[in-house]
Amino acid sequence: xxxxxxxxxxxxxxxxxxxxxxxxxxxxxxxxxxxxxxxxxxxxxxxxxxxxxxxxxxxxxxxxxxxxxxxxxxxxxxxxxxxxxxxxxxxxxxxxxxxxxxxxxxxxxxxxxxxxxxxxxxxxxxxxxxxxxxxxxxxxxxxxxxxxxxxxxxxxxxxxxxxxxxxxxxxxxxxxxxxxxxxxxxxxxxxxxxxxxxxxxxxxxxxxxxxxxxxxxxxxxxxxxxxxxxxxxxxxxxxxxxxxxxxxxxxxxxxxxxxxxxxxxxxxxxxxxxxxxxxxxxxxxxxxxxxxxxxxxxxxxxxxxxxxxxxxxxxxxxxxxxxxxxxxxxxxxxxxxxxxxxxxxxxxxxxxxxxxxxxxxxxxxxxxxxxxxxxxxxxxxxxxxxxxxxxxxxxxxxxxxxxxxxxxxxxxxxxxxxxxxxxxxxxxxxxxxxxxxxxxxxxxxxxxxxxxxxxxxxxxxxxxxxxxxxxxxxxxx
Length: 477
Fold this sequence. Notes:
Elements: E1 6-10, H1 15-26, E2 31-35, E3 51-54, H2 60-67, E4 70-75, H3 86-104, E5 108-114, H4 124-136, E6 143-148, E7 151-152, H5 157-168, E8 171-175, E9 181-182, E10 185-186, H6 187-199, E11 207-210, E12 216-217, H7 218-229, E13 234-238, H8 243-253, H9 258-266, H10 278-282, H11 291-299, E14 317-323, E15 326-335, H12 339-346, H13 359-371, E16 391-392, E17 395-401, E18 405-410, E19 416-426, E20 432-442, H14 444-472
Parallel strand pairs: 1-2, 1-4, 2-3, 4-5, 5-6, 6-11, 7-10, 8-13
Antiparallel strand pairs: 9-12, 14-15, 15-20, 16-17, 17-18, 18-19, 19-20
């Protein structure tokens, strides 16, 4: 029971916070977020249910405003993207936060750090995580610190590194550090602990090491993933591989930028396993998952309906991102048109109306698909209306929300899964925000080669389709 106690979330645009906030709202907690870039969070489903303070955690003025009347504060931030001097910034930020929380009368701070033996030789990132916890404890507010091993969940930085590298590289080459041990923990269990700490006063002022049921090597995290995906992968370790080169490779092949990949890889120089079982004693209701189950749960979210919409900034946009196992081609524009007219334009695609732009290429793709044993161009039941479950050429109508959204799942033969999605929503200034998204989840090397080889054609076709739909909206005003 929340008793109307406000919870502050820092790092609200991050992965952990994005999963934690909806759970706090479900439990009735008033949630406030300190956010520096509001455009990165407007597309979240819970946006309208949360109070926001527009500011920077490094600003004393922002902290004073954000912490006013707060009961518990979750500290979920780091500064790895700021460059090599991030440990100093992390330390200063944590010290300032601890001081501001003390002055504001906050009752409790919950911090998520990294699991490592502080007495071992550890990387700079892990050392910074330990220092951050120590800095938060310098204030008068009791701190519950969770030190987590590798977090497994769709969208987790660690899991996306595992996913994208394993999918693309038949022979996984890495440093001897890959033989070090980790205790991967499911995002579900991390959230279990973070929520339980809110209600368990006995855990305040304590440090808890948390990991899943299995202790495996870093190499096994990739090899087990490969087995679950039906991929054949081999491992080759080498005594010396420059960290910069590995970070560059991760930057090119995954959604993780080099600035984050470098410290994360450096952190693998030591084991990340639970040595103190206090978490199990204090939180016996948390049922830990094994690594295989955690990966299966993450792979089970390989659907657009499960993807966090990090691209939605409420304005015009055209970009391609790698996110949660997908390549996502996003186009978004504001139109001086009623949402119903936009919806009518994109729900008439396919069948006798065709695909508006380069329709011959769509027909050719359908022919190739039919030759490969796929459904080909099947038309549609009714050229003027749609229902969920119906066929639209080589697509299936997966989701249809009247006057708001249409998602089609491709049933073509391809080395991966693909969807097309259109969304429209009214905007306060009048008109509508229209979005077109192409999702492709490649499987294995062939899936990635397929995406890159056909991307120039797909870009041409989908850009043209987007423009044609915009033009068509005027006919349905």
